[in-house]
Design a protein that fits this description.
With about 240 residues, the chain is an alpha/beta fold. Helix 4 runs parallel beside helix 5 and helix 5 packs antiparallel against helix 6. It is about 35% helix and about 20% strand.
Length: about 240
């Protein structure tokens, strides 16, 4: 496991820290797998991944967005923790948005069922209690303590090149160019390219004040305006969505 922010790495666990289970496997629940499981459990029901008129519709949040508010008898969110535990400071916000939209899609007297190992999480409790404020307050407190937007700005600097050594050398140059600039937190660089990819990719994250773009513009401009060894390219993404 590798942290996308500070680049710290740890070996994958062989046992669940919550329940002690040891039968761990890297399998998710995509819509196809969910539909197959639901078909076995409810063999007499009409199940579809595309037709909203079916008795049971299995789909992503995009499918939910096409449903009229207050028209569904029941909505079930499978593997809610996949969103809740995203390695992204907006993970809780996105989880809350999905659960709140699901609750709005349910008709009066209907049910929202959320599959989670963390029912005590404030995002879950806020939806359960129909209280947006009970989500916003702890979320803002968390972001304030950790220095995330809207209290500080974030920037991602990345380098891609044909050779891993070229990408690593250039990303290190970019990081050194930011040394000594007050108000910045520059995290260690980490490789982000997929295994076997034709190009290597490295990146690091910067946190800073509202004037973050002005603080990094001059130091990074030389690297943005020229191509380097092996055609390496520097990219800067301010206020990334994820």
């Amino acid at each position: 496991m590798r942290c996308q922010l500070c680049a710290k790495t740890e070996p994958l666990p062989d046992r669940c820290s919550h329940c002690g289970g040891h039968r761990l496997s890297p399998l998710g629940w995509d819509p196809e797998r969910v539909a197959a499981a639901v078909s076995k459990r409810f063999p007499k029901s009409t199940i579809s991944r595309t037709d909203p008129r079916a008795q049971i519709v299995v789909g992503t949040t995009a499918m939910l967005a096409r449903m009229e508010p207050g028209t569904l008898g029941c909505v079930g969110i499978v593997s809610f923790d996949d969103v809740l535990s995203l390695p992204d400071f907006r993970g809780g916000e996105r989880a809350f948005q999905i659960a709140w939209a699901s609750a709005e899609a349910v008709a009066p007297g209907g049910r929202l069922v959320v599959q989670t190992l963390h029912p005590e999480h404030y995002a879950v409790q806020a939806v359960k209690d129909h209280d947006r404020a009970s989500f916003y307050k702890p979320e803002l407190h968390l972001r304030s303590d950790l220095g995330y937007p809207p209290f500080r700005r974030i920037c991602v600097v990345s380098v891609r090149a044909r050779a891993d050594g070229d990408a690593r050398a250039l990303i290190d140059d970019c990081a050194r160019a930011l040394n000594g600039i007050g108000g910045l937190t520059v995290y260690p660089a980490a490789p982000t390219g997929a295994a076997g990819a034709k190009t290597a990719r490295w990146q690091f994250v910067i946190k800073g004040p509202a004037e973050l773009p002005l603080l990094i513009r001059a130091p990074l401009t030389p690297y943005l305006e020229q191509r380097r060894r092996g055609g390496a390219v520097v990219e800067v993404e301010m206020d990334p969505v994820s």
